[in-house]
């Protein structure tokens, strides 16, 4: 989101939020309702009820940053069958979500781990 900002995790808040909330309300929501650290190296992503807007909250060095995207004619794909208040995604999956892909409909190939080639 910000050049030089180190992001290690992305958390999608599964339930829609009131988009009148800004930095203060969203940071309290992250800390108290979601039980996460709003000062961590993570993006906290919120969606409105119509699923045509997202807000992204993150901490950068000495203050919070808030980013908004509004779709003019489409809706964002959002997790449907996840447990808990948040759904973790990778930065790559978040980028795909911003581009309009449904990362839950067609997940990527599984990562394979081998101990030898023979």
Description of the molecule:
By secondary structure, the protein is α+β, with helices and mostly antiparallel strands. Helix content is 17%, strand content 26%. The chain contains two helices and five strands. It has helices at residues 23-33, 91-99, and strands spanning 9-13, 42-47, 53-60, 63-70, 86-89. It has a five-stranded mixed β-sheet. Strand 2 (42-47) and strand 3 (53-60) form a beta hairpin. The longest helix has 11 residues, at 23-33. The radius of gyration is 16 Å and the shape is globular. The termini are far apart. The mean pLDDT is 90.
Mean pLDDT: 90
Number of helices: 2
Rounded to the nearest angstrom, the radius of gyration is 16 Å
Backbone structural class: alpha+beta
Q: What's the shape?
A: globular
Order of helices and strands: EHEEEEH
Major beta sheet, specifics?
5 strands, mixed
> In which order are the strands of the major sheet placed?
4-3-2-1-5
Q: What distance separates the N and C termini?
A: 43 Å
Protein name: IS66 family insertion sequence element accessory protein TnpB
Organism: Massilia mucilaginosa
Pfam family, one: TnpB_IS66
InterPro entries: Transposase_IS66_Orf2
